[in-house]
Input
Amino acid sequence: MSATRVLTGIPASPGIVVGRARVVSDFGDLQATFRLLYTDRERQAEVRRFKEAVEQAQADLSRLRDRVAAEFPEHTHLLELHLLILTDQMLHDEPLRLIREENLNAEWALHRAYERVRELFSRIEDPYIRGRIQDVESVYRRLMGILIGQSPRRLIPTGDKVILVARDLSPAETTQMAGSGVVGFITERGGRTSHTAILAQSFEIPAVVGVDNAIKEIAPGEELILDGLSGRIILNPDQGVLERYRRRQAEFAAFREEVTTNAAEPATTPDGFATRVMANIELPEEVHLVGRYGADGVGLYRTEFLFLRLRHLPTEEELFEDYRKVVASLAPRLVTIRTLDIGGDKFLHRNDYVPEMNPALGLRAIRFCLRERDIFRRQLRAILRASAYGRVRVMFPLISSVQEVREAKALIEEVKGELRREGHPFDEEMPVGAMIEVPAAVTLCQMLAPEVDFFSIGTNDLIQYALAIDRGNKQVAAMYQPLHPAVLRMVLQVVTAAGVSGVPVAMCGEMAGDPLHLPILLGLGVAELSMNPLAIPVIKRVIRSITLAEAQAMASRVLEMVSVEEINDFANLFLKERFPEIYRFGSALAGI
Output
């Protein structure tokens, strides 16, 4: 028997499983051949061949979508997205142009167009949006496979307790796992926010992604343990290791059942402090997760995706339909819609923006919207119209001045006047909020408070800007510390200033969904938290088990500490002693 070995990756879907590896073929043989075309007849033939490939891919995806719709209707949007990508300007029109104008054969034209899309996505700062390149790549693979005559991979295994090992898996392939013998999967690529990972979480299939050289390191049929809590893969485990992990597997299953069963209960501390625990979503089809995991509403509805998945700027009606679906489905729960947090670098179908050296500090979010007022106005009209179907509030991202808020509010008032004249119903009192994501907004929060109905602290950006840390840069990523003394003092400053003006404060960054941070945040006075839906049952469990007085005492002690190491040690010790099961499993279940 071979020696036990350990591989590590990114835990993408929680759970522990034991099984035999099935290594599925890589896409390395999807090589595009280069050939120049010399005659009109050749060009016409290649155009026809490319269009036929698109039609076949559309037919294949439509059949798969219909099968998925019968059992998992909430996930059909992922396949519909792939159908949209098939007709996208960059992956459809551009290859046709390259065939007609640059005399390239269909395979090489498709390859060239895809490489351009990939390069554009690589410049996008937002990890959620950047991660969508996997959907584009999935469509590219499907089309290229048709063009070179390669059949799609078949993943449905024979036998039980199969762990798939692949370079990557598309959302379409992942849907095939539900109800099959697959108990988990490992990929060399991907991240926690990919659609493949989201599907795995929904199907409760444990997964570890980003495992370097998994295909080479794992032999077909090899026994292994997949630990979707820690991201560890144990190959050829001995009996002692197997028994230890099977105990851990049973303990996690019991913990998961217990916290999710009580997820719908109110998030109120034992001494009566009522909080609101909300969900972050980015697609209308994620609404089912809000109810499934006990969210009190939506604290962050990211609205960028529709702008990126269409060939054109979305119309008011397209935006309205997306927003209406979410708002109506969740009524009477509150839905917080963030206006576009997007810049010219993300409009892949437009060429009138100069590439920026540092998009994070450039023309994005509220700055972009106030410059591109037609786009902003269209979105505000759609949001206001959707407010007639439930409870809606709107918030502006990346605010750094009072003037930005005033200009955005003035535009809302203009839009309200238009809608009244046109006879469209809307909520006349729709609350308006500012996101606190940059140090300037923190220092100005006393001046901002009279202008808005609520604040929402976006910790992902706030930590990055406050500490001058790019967490995507491996050389400094470890310095990205949510419990840094400066970050905690900024949170306290916002809560204190807002309290004077009677403005409620929410938090919607990743920090809000980590049970390690929760007691300190409660103690600082944050009463509304929004997070990955998976995190909600764990966070509610902690809230229902700790008094506000305890949390305030913790916060007071932490504010006296001068180093992030001391604060982290203190928070970890408290969680370990007070909530041992959550210390062991909570962060993994929360998707942290």
Observations:
- The first helix runs from residue 40 to 71.
- The CA atoms of residues 90 and 116 lie 8 Å apart.
